[in-house]
Amino acid sequence: MDGAGLESFREFVESRSSALLKTAVLLSGGDRHAGEDLLQSALAKAAGRWQRIDEPEAYVRRILYRQQVSRWRLKWRRREVTVAEPPEAGLPGSDAAAAAELRVVMRHALSRLTARQRTVLVLRYFEDLPEADVARLLGCSVGTVRSTTHRSLARLRTLAPELAALGPAAAEQPQPSRDYAPVEVRP
After folding, report:
1. Interior CA angle at 82 toward 78 and 84, to 5°?
2. Where are the alpha helices (DSSP H) in the chain?
3. Least crowded by CB within 10 Å, which of 92, 109, 163, 166?
């Protein structure tokens, strides 16, 4: 790599590494160290081809996704299970405390999903990629992405039912009155 290429690679790493690290940490189940390793190896691969890359961020993200897929396919790799409980929630009614609690609960729930389930959810909802792009990146069919997304969300709801109570939609939902029972209206 020549001097201009090295300088442009450094600028890219300085400007985009924090956003790429967030994605890598989510892909690795909230494990920051594994996310850092994932990003570092992706950047190392990109550095070797830097002069031939047209869209650097898309290229590095594609490497991240593919490396994560390769990691979950390794049968010998075993993930350590953390036993620490999430910290106590902050003051009730505090938006910052509720957001922090939501992040802790979500990170814990995501870490309990399989790597494939977690990757599909991150690509679909965090990266906001359409199903066709997720299927192309993961090397599977659109139907597989849909079914994995459905099963992953169902498992996430089972693992962390408290997410429904923490989300903004829960606060907006009207609570039924206890004065009467709901009546079914038939035409």
Report:
1. 175
2. 3-27, 32-48, 56-73, 95-111, 115-121, 131-138, 142-159, 162-166, 168-172
3. 92
Tell me the pLDDT tens digit for each residue of 9-50: 999 999 999 999 999 988 888 888 888 999 999 999 998 888
| Other residues' Cβ atoms within 10 Å of the Cβ of residue 51 | 11
Backbone phi and psi for residue 91, each to the nearest 5 degrees, phi listed first: -65, 135
Q: Sign of the CA dihedral 119, 121, 127, 133? A: positive
- Tell me, what amino acid is at 92? P
Question: Which H/E stretch holds residue 125?
Answer: none
Token readout for 76 is 């010998």
Reduced to 3 states, what is the DSSP secondary structure of residue 13? helix
Q: What is the pLDDT of residues 115-166, one digit of tens each?
A: 889 889 988 988 888 999 999 988 899 999 999 999 999 898 888 887 766 5
Measured CA angle at 65 (ends 34, 22), to 5 deg: 50
